[in-house]
Design brief:
The chain has helices spanning 49-57, 81-92, 119-123, 156-163, 230-242, and strands at 18-23, 27-32, 62-63, 72-78, 97-105, 111-114, 131-138, 142-149, 206-214, 221-225. It is an alpha+beta fold. Strands 1, 2, 3, 4, 5, 6, 7, 8, 9 and 10 form a 10-stranded mixed beta sheet that branches. The chain is globular. The N and C termini lie far apart (53 Å).
Length: 244
């Protein structure tokens, strides 16, 4: 079933953006900016990922994979109910492969498996969730880690990292650092302006870099990737330069 194309809606402004990665008769895959809501939820007035995709393509889409507002990266929506059911079932049965990149505080081990119940899933009686963490780079007070999950919950990586003692940079909900300033990592930093220092990154430093899921048309898995968001990449660049 394919929805008929309707009139294009006017773009709300200002909004974070999206980049379309893939589109077929069943689904759309996009690279979402941090700051953009995945779907309206209780706030019906603010623009969302769904709005921008509908504006770009001219037809309605249905939410499937919900990244948290301040997480960037790969996300997927369905074009019709049959496709949504097919895709959502894979998330519910934890058959989806997700790879997140994160900047955390502390010195995590080379590798670890975090197997702890999540608040949201415990309330629904499902607690079998695991995050496989690999440390990719270490800095003076921070590290970049890769986290593999099976698509259990949108808060999984953030909650598991906090529970393991390696809170996401910018994760205010779990008492993490609210932002990364150049002055906090560069010795002898001197401001070139009288204006307040602008953070290198001021949101939770979490990026969904890869999503692997079976497509409805073929019933075969396909992987989609999104490059690091600009603020995430800038924070890494400065950490490598001044905090190695």
């Amino acid at each position: 079933m394919i929805r008929e194309q309707g009139p294009k809606r006017e773009r709300p402004a200002p909004l974070p953006g999206i980049r379309l990665l893939y589109c077929d008769d069943d689904l759309v895959v996009a690279d979402k900016d941090a700051g953009l809501l995945s779907d309206p939820g209780r706030d019906k007035l603010e623009g969302t990922l769904l709005d921008l995709i509908e504006i770009e393509l001219g037809y309605e889409v249905l939410p499937v994979h919900r990244l948290e507002r301040w997480t960037s990266g790969v996300t997927i929506v369905a074009r019709h109910e049959q496709a949504r059911s097919f895709l959502e079932r894979q998330f519910q049965e934890q058959q989806v492969g997700e790879l997140y990149l994160a900047i955390v505080s502390g010195a995590p081990p080379a590798a670890a498996t975090i197997d702890l119940p999540l608040r949201a899933m415990k309330a629904r009686g499902s607690v079998d969730v695991r995050t496989q963490m690999i440390c990719l780079e270490r800095f003076a007070r921070h590290a970049m880690v890769a986290c593999r999950t099976n698509g259990a919950n949108q808060t999984q990586v953030r909650e598991h990292l906090a529970a393991a003692g390696f809170t996401l940079l910018g994760d205010a909900a779990n008492s993490g650092e609210r932002e990364l300033l150049l002055s906090s990592i560069k010795r002898g930093y001197r401001s070139k302006s009288e204006r307040p220092e602008r953070p290198l990154i001021s949101r939770q430093a979490l990026h969904c870099a890869r999503l692997e899921i079976k497509l409805p048309a073929s019933d075969l898995p396909q992987a989609f990737e999104a490059p690091q968001a600009a603020d995430f990449a800038l924070a890494l660049k400065m950490l490598r330069k001044y905090s190695a």
